[in-house]
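User:
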Amino acid sequence: MNPIELTYDEKLNLKLDLWLPEAGNPPIFIYMHGGGIENGDKRTMVDNIKRMVSKGIAVASLNYRMYPTAKYPEFIDDCAKGIDFLLHGEYQFSRVFVGGSSAGSYLSMMLLFDHKYLGRYGLNPLDFDGWVLDAGQPTVHFNVLRERGLDTRLVRIDEAAPLWHITKNFNELKPDGKLPMILNISASNDMTCRLEQLKLLNATLLHFNYPKDRLRFAYMNGYNHCGYTDQPIFAEMVESIIL
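Assistant: Predicted structure:
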């Protein structure tokens, strides 16, 4: 079982891996890797990807521009372009799930809550079937703070923070009630302030009338930051909202 490597931006030479199950028209999980927006690669958690593919789920893993050559919000733009490439391309998918781990989760949150990125391609992130927000930072990402010349420990909420963009009741944004499932994951021994910030994100969603039955908060007791991502338990959690 090997992926198809595709170039979704010729000019920037940005690539993604697409893993396809045997059956056609599968659901797809589009994944952004972690690494602080300065490290990491699309060829990650391969065993878990193969497991999901064996269960009939297509998986796409994206590369995107990173520091020090990239600047905010170029990496978010890249991920939006990769999603557009997949959903408006030659392959057909029955349902769409998007997510990432750590920095990849921050990118996913920005795509979910700031609708302008996917909106440029005629896509509404609330029309997707689910989002996996694994240990991401819902405030301004620490490396975006570094880009600004600020202390990376600062807690800032502005236009570069996913939380900033939660401003309307979700029952107004989607009156039909067909909102995506959101799986929010954090570890008991996560990065400093990360668990608390993710609890704040969950509480904020509920405060803005996100349906409780469409939210899942997974507390990974005994784990460090993303210490479970390469283990079967992570694939099981993702599969639980897809299958």
